[in-house]
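hey m, so remember when u said the tokens were messed up on ur end? i reran from scratch. heres the input so u can diff it against urs
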Amino acid sequence: MARKVLVLNADFKALTICSVTKAFLLVYTEKAELVHEVENQQLRSISRRFPMPSVIRLYGYVSIPYKGVMLSRQNVFKRDNNRCLYCSATDNLTLDHVLPRSRGGQTTWTNLVTACRRCNSKKGDLLPEEAKMPLPYKPFKPSFILFTREFSGAADKAWIPFLQTK
């Protein structure tokens, strides 16, 4: 099942996303409650039918000191909408350091962008301004809520009230 389920903490704040199977097990073992189900879809066993979860809430509060989005190649691609930020191509994507590593650039959210191989080679060890290849926006580190809402690609409309930034 490719469908994902939003998991809320006991205080109804977004905690994570999990598979339908994991969410069902949490509800079935009474570790979580079903907050919203997918309409017209069910999980079936041999003799029973269960609502397919879309949003669940844990009964116990889980304390998480820091909840950020892990820096990874795929997450940078998601943030940049799987497009080269220099020419908008969608094929042969790589990561480009805005400030090249040879000039002291770090591998961080704010220094990495998605680039196609052609643009990455063309830019080389130059800054975007030096290569006359301006970026449409400054690279940023997405928050967990922003990443889940905008970039996960699996958001259900039922998630929206729980993913609002306050």
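this time it looks ok to me. The domain at 73-123 is CATH 1.10.30.50 (DNA Binding (I), subunit A). if urs says something different then somethings off w ur setup not the seq
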